[in-house]
Amino acid sequence: MLSTMVGHRLHLVRRWPYGESVTGDEVVEILLDSLIPILINYEREGMTEGQENLKLCGVSGIRICDFLTRDDSNLVELSFMDRLAKARDELWKTHRARTDPNVLELRAGWPRGLPVQNLVDSPIWLLHAMKYQDHAPFLSVRANQLLFSTVDVIMDVVTKEGDCIHGFVDDLGFVIQALLANPHQATRICDVRRVWEYYSQILGPHPVYLGLFKEWLVNILPNQDEMAEAINMIQQPSLSVKPMVSAVPTGSEVIEWDPHEGDYPLSETTLDDDKGIRTERPHEILCTILNYRMGG
C-alpha cells in the first residue's frame, strides 16, 4: 500500500501545474519529502523485536522503482531516491549497532549501515546517481568510494569482521552493472577501461589478487561483440593454477599480515603417489575485503 502511495505522489509531482503560487521545490517538499519519515517509520517497525517474522520490507526497503521513470530526465525523482537512501542508511546504522555493538568497530571498507546494492532499487538508478552527482550526492559518493577504494582498504585482510558483517557487504559487481547500463557503447567501454586501469595499477604489487580481479571482471562483462574491445583489453588471466581464498581466520588462527609485502606463490608442486606424477595444487591466499566485494 505504501509503494502505491509513493506512486500516486510521484504521478502528482510530474503533472503538477507549477506557477507563481507554488514552486517546484515546495511541491517536492510537500508531496515527496513528507513521505520519507513515513517510509522510515514503517521500516523501523519491521525491525522491532517480535515483528521480524512479518518481513515488512527487509534490507531492500519498500520497492518503489516500478513507479519511477526509467530514463534520467527526471532529476526530482533521483533526488528523492537519494534522500530516502540516506535516511535508510542512517536507520540501519542505528539498528545494526544496537543489535551488534561490534559493528561500531568495523574498519574502513565495511558498511555500518546498508550495502550500496540495498540502497537503490536497480543499477540503472545508481548510474543516474553517478551521472548527476549534484542531484544524488549520497549515492554518488557511496558508489565512487566503492568503485575506487584505496589499496589499503581493499587489501585489508578479513579477520574478526567476519563475525559481525552478516552479509552486509558492498557488491562491487552491482556498481559495474550500473556502468554497463549506460546506453552509449563508447561510454561503457571507456568506463570499463577506467576501472581496469585503476585496479591494475593499485593491485600491481599483488599479482595474484590482480589475476583474480581480472578473471572476475571479464566474467561479469556481457558476452557481446560490443564489449569485445574491453574484454581484449583486459584479457583472460593466464594462471595455470587458480589460487584458493582462505577461510576467514578466527581466534588464535588470526595472523598479522602486511598487505604491501608483495605477491604470493601461485602453487606448490606435490607428488601423486599413485601415478608418480608431479602436479600443482592451488596455493591458499588470505581473504581480503576485495574478495568479499567480488562475491567471496
Task: Explain the overall architecture.
With 296 residues, the chain is mainly α. Helix content is 47%, strand content 5%. It has helices at residues 2-15, 24-33, 35-47, 75-99, 123-131, 137-147, 151-154, 172-180, 185-202, 207-220, 228-234, 289-293; strands spanning 244-245, 267-272, 277-282, 284-285. Strand 2 and strand 3 form a beta hairpin. Helix 5 (123-131) packs across helix 6 (137-147). It starts with a helix and ends with a helix. Mean pLDDT is 80; it is low at 250-262 and 264-271.
Give me a quick take on this structure.
With 296 residues, this protein is mainly α.
Largest sheet: 2 strands, parallel
Strand order of the largest sheet: 1-4
Unreliable segments of 5+ consecutive residues = 250-262, 264-271
The amount of beta strand, in percent, is 5-15%
Helix proportion: 40-55%
Q: How many helix segments?
A: 12
Query: What is the number of beta strands?
Result: 4
Average pLDDT score: 80
Helix-strand sequence: HHHHHHHHHHHEEEEH
Radius of gyration: 23 Å
Task: Compute the separation of the termini in Å.
Answer: 37 Å
The gross shape turns out to be globular
Summing up helix and strand content along with how strands pair, one would put the structural category as mainly alpha
